[in-house]
Amino acid sequence: MISLARGLDIIRSFSEERPQQTLSELAAVTGLSRAVVRRFVHTLVALGYARTDGKLFTLTPRVLELGFSYLSSQPLPALVQPHLETLSHALGESTSASVLDGTDIVYIARVPTRRIMRTSITVGTRFPAYATSMGRVLLAGLTDARLDEFLAGLHAEALTPATRTEPEALRAEILRVRAQGWALVDQELEAGLRSVAAPVTREGAVVAAINVSTTSTVATLEAIRTRFVPALLEAARAASEDVGIAIDSGIL
After folding, report:
1. What value, to the nearest 5°, has the Cα angle with vertex 231 and ends 230 and 236?
2. 229 in Cβ contact with 237 (< 8 Å)
3. Which phi and psi angles does 99 have, rounded to 5°?
4. What is the 3-class SS of 67-130, one letter each residue?
5. What pLDDT score does 193 carry?
6. Do 109 and 81 form a contact (C-beta atoms < 8 A)?
7. CATH class of segment(s) 2-60
8. CA torsion through residues 158, 161, 167, 171, sign
9. What's the mean pLDDT when you consider all of the chain?
């Protein structure tokens, strides 16, 4: 298990900012020794998940197989994708779906219209749940005990001047989201970014969240509440209905 964890640590160390790395850089990012990194990265090269020119290491497209194995084994992304497309077409904005994984959200489906963040968002992108609209919807779906556990272990960072980081402030907001059925986050993840999210449910339990993202220069908060929210809630309702049908048919 330790070997698998170290191999995954090396894979995860690559990013948009670090598409290629030396052994020293990999060791610094992962916290592993050069000798350990050398052994594992050369194993990844032998298996076809990485390549090297003798100095720099990069991942190969074969790494995508790891993510596609999850996507192909889970019908949820395919169920929500048509609703994201309809919602994006209606509002002219990017739409996404995500699930909760530990303290992060992980994107499982997306319809982009333009790049609105410094970070490129794709399926598999992760963001801290506490600072995102989809994260707050997913956290609102937790039991009180699990939410308490999440907040107790949270080390929130102020990503922008607007980011809520205090556990009690976050708890109050998450409970408000639970009561109203949707979440609006205004420039807490990145300056200028606004997003609104709603839950996709299965037999009353929140299984995913979908959102619409825009910028503060394109949509006012009032426009998001009056125009985006009704369309979003309808898309979430329709997606939840499809999930229910999938359960009845034995797909889920």
Report:
1. 95
2. no
3. -125, 165
4. HHHHHHHCCHHHHHHHHHHHHHHHHCCEEEEEEEECCEEEEEEEECCCCCCCCCCCCCCEEEHH
5. 96
6. yes
7. mainly alpha
8. negative
9. 91
Instruction: For residues 198 and 177, give the distance between their C-alpha atoms in angstroms, rounded to a whole number.
Output: 9
In the 8-state DSSP scheme, what is residue 62?
A: G
Tokens of 199: 């839950």
Q: Can you read off the two tokens belonging to residue 104?
A: 């992060």
pLDDT in tens, 184-203: 999 999 999 999 999 999 88
Nearest residue to 163 (alpha-carbon basis) of 130, 117, 115: 130
Which ranges constitute the DSSP H helices of the chain? 2-13, 23-30, 34-47, 64-73, 76-91, 133-140, 144-152, 167-180, 221-223, 229-248
Q: Which CATH number fits domain 74-248: 3.40.309.10, 3.40.470.10, 3.30.450.40, 3.90.1150.10?
A: 3.30.450.40
Contact 91, 234 (CB under 8 A): no
Stated length of the chain: 252
Instruction: Report if pTM > 0.90.
Output: no
On the 0-12 / 13-18 / 19+ scale of CB atoms within 10 A, 204 is exposed
Measured CA to CA, the distance from residue 83 to residue 97 in angstroms comes to 10
Percentage of residues in the chain with pLDDT exceeding 90?
A: 76
Q: Which helix (H) or strand (E) holds 14?
A: none
SS3 210: strand
Beta bridge partners of 210: 97, 198
238 contacts: CB under 8 Å, gap ≥ 6? 83
Domain edges within the chain: 2-60, 74-248
